[in-house]
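Late entry, evening session. Most of the bench is empty. Finally got around to the prediction I had been postponing all week. Sequence below, unchanged from the version circulated by S.P.
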Amino acid sequence: MKMRRTMFAYPYVVWMLIFILAPVLMIAYYAFTSDSTFTLENLTGALTNEMYMQVLLRSIWIALKATVICLVLGYPIAYLLSKMRKGTASLLSVLFIVPMWMNFLLRTYAWQVLLSPSGILNSALEWLGLPPQQFLYTESAIMLGTVYNFLPFMILPIYTVLSKMDPSQIEAAHDLGANGPTTFFKVVLPLSMPGVISGITMVFIPAITTFAISRLLGGGKFMLYGDLIENQFITLGIDAWGSGSALSFILLILVLISMAIMRRAEREAGEEGGGKLW
């Protein structure tokens, strides 16, 4: 029986070696070599380049803002879903999941059409007698596309935690004299923190690595870190693979640090549970 379980694990091991470990090793190789010789020139060049650092900070800032907006929008939606009947909540949850079945680029192209000078929004403004606005190719358009694409990743984990919460804990808080806001901030919110942290992780990491949204909705005016990496590999060609790999390695380290911080916060939130009522 044990041998059979080991055999079933082999395909997963092969998958990890080919699609996870091999690309990471390739990035590390090109990041720390030049003409097959070990060097730190690629890494130091990426870290000391002022333009690269500005792009990185811009990407982190946009990812943080998108994460906060997704949390502000996603938590109330998840909370309302958890209070609905199971059938209704399941139906509404599907409405958030269905767009995720579509291709990521198609969803972004849809917003490009909506925000264009001749799109629905400007047509509505023209019908109201208002002057047209420049919605497309702005930082706000990038933010809108990022929030739209990643909002379900914030809602679903929070909803899952809230829907599995033991109602007796809320009833006990009411029996002890806690009102609605006190119950929420002392019981519901602390118990839902694992879902909140999972949602933050699932939004922040993809947001900081995205590149298609900024290109399609930003028109290339607001380069993000993903665009910078793509430019090194695709546009500049094999001669820039060293710097492109160094940039990718820096992003990999940032993602791993973010995941470690979120995992520790999630573990601490799970251990603490609900807060004290008084």
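Two things to note before I forget:
The CA atoms of residues 43 and 246 lie 5 Å apart.
The domain at 52-272 is CATH 1.10.3720.10 (MetI-like fold).
Will write this up properly tomorrow.
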